[in-house]
Amino acid sequence: MSRATLIGTRLRERRLQAGLRQGDVSRAAGISPSYLNLIEHNRRNVTPDVLERLAGALGLPPGDFTEAEPGALVADLRAAAAGFPGSGAETDRAAELAGRYPGWAQLIADLQAHIAGLRQGMAALNDRLGHDPHLSAALHELLSALSAVRATAGILVETEDLTPDWQRRFHQNLHHDSERLVGGAEALISWLDHSGDEAESAAVTPQDELETWAAALNWSLPEDEEVALARLKSAGAKDLARAWIAAMRADLAAMPEAEFSTAWAESGDPALLAARFGVPVQAVMRRVALRPDVAAGLVRCDASGTLLFRKPVAGFALPRYGAACPLWPLFTALMRSGQPVTARVAMPQPGGGRFLCLAFCEARLPWGFGGPELREATMLILPDDTRRVTPDLAASGMTPPDLAAGSTCRLCPREACPARREPSILSEPAQQGALAPSVGSGRRQITF
pLDDT tens across 415-439, in order? Predict the structure, then answer.
């Protein structure tokens, strides 16, 4: 791994030090915020031209990001030591190491960044192997077709007095099942080909395809709807995309950009804006999160807890498969229909951030009082900012509580979490079996 892999990290550090948002820097550099987000997390290479424009947007020379700076290098060395707390590394002498042996110091920092990338890739692939419904369906189809071929072949071999008519039928079955085998093998090969890509870029379900497509549009309405829809492969994804476009247009009509931008800057409270514009609270949340220049995430679920829509934000990982963290305010809101839930959430390090999460659940009665109540909850994920607390709430002293949460149990390193329901693949092997410790440890005992 070369020094270039640290360019994104340094860009993000300089942007945060300058107090600039991704939208501001990306607009000044002439790129999309989603592309800048990938660059800052070292998931896209930076061309010299783009780097020069980004450096200009930050008011710094490009060499600040391509050359090993002592301050950044020392920080990387200390981060490497923090990742291995039992190593005994003298963190107070990191500056001396960087000054005397910059090459070796850079190698240590690069290896640490490489290890972190491998861990993230392993976690994403492990999660996909364990939860991807398309892999399960492909393997099931292969096993089913193989069993059918074996049964038919066994009958043909062991039964000597089969009539020509029955032989013809069994041969047709073999032909049909062999076609199923080919189709199942092709589906499995396609899945394995996608597994080599970045976990976030492989769209294998209509929802994944929609979210990948929307991210490519920078979560904005397409200029040409038909051309944009033609890029989607599955009919299910196209249906979801049409519904998404219709909701976006309805939100824009009810909450025009100029008026909404002013109102959001004044209050920053979805409930107050919902009353002002006469729209549901969840519509305001969606309107905030899907503004191209706002670094905000959005997640929506139904009463079963299934995630129906995911717009990620850097530092707050949203699981692709399996259940999400039960501590999210999103699920608390499901139990309190019509009541707002607010919490400041700290995601696990490394890579996690602090966010202000606003959640709200709304109920529908599509079949009237005689039918079931349908609930959907939405959570708006904003970078932690005390200014987002309304003045009345701040004056009362009722600030949102702090909450240590994660993405999903399989990818969360918080071993002492009382809500843990399964071992984490990020734990040490010796720890994965220690799921029922002594009383008072703070961990939840996982039972079956």
Answer: 888 888 888 766 544 343 433 333 3
DSSP conformation letters of 309-365: EEE-BTTB---SSS---TTSHHHHHHTSTT--EEEEEEPPTTT--EEEEEEEEEEE-
State both tokens at 95. 């500056």
Q: How many angstroms separate the CA atoms of 222 and 229, rounded?
A: 9
| pTM, 2 dp | 0.55
Single residue among 128, 157, 175 that ends a domain in this structure:
128
Peptide bond into 329 cis (omega under 30): no
Of the candidates 338, 339, 332, the residue with the CA atom closest to the CA atom of residue 362: 338
Contact criterion met (CB below 8 Å) for 416 and 442: yes
- The Cα–Cα gap between 167 and 66 comes to 72
Domain range for residue 401? 255-414
With H, G, I as helix, E, B as strand and everything else as coil, classify residue 328: coil
What digits encode the pLDDT tens for the residues 54-100? 888 888 887 767 654 456 677 778 878 877 777 788 888 877 776 56
Structural domains in the chain (count)? 3
Residues 12, 147 within the same domain:
no
What are the pLDDT digits (tens) for 178-232? 888 877 776 666 566 554 444 444 445 788 888 888 888 888 899 888 999 998 8
Could you tell me if 377 and 359 are in contact, meaning their C-beta atoms sit under 8 angstroms apart?
yes
> What does the radius of gyration of the chain's CA atoms come to, in whole angstroms?
26
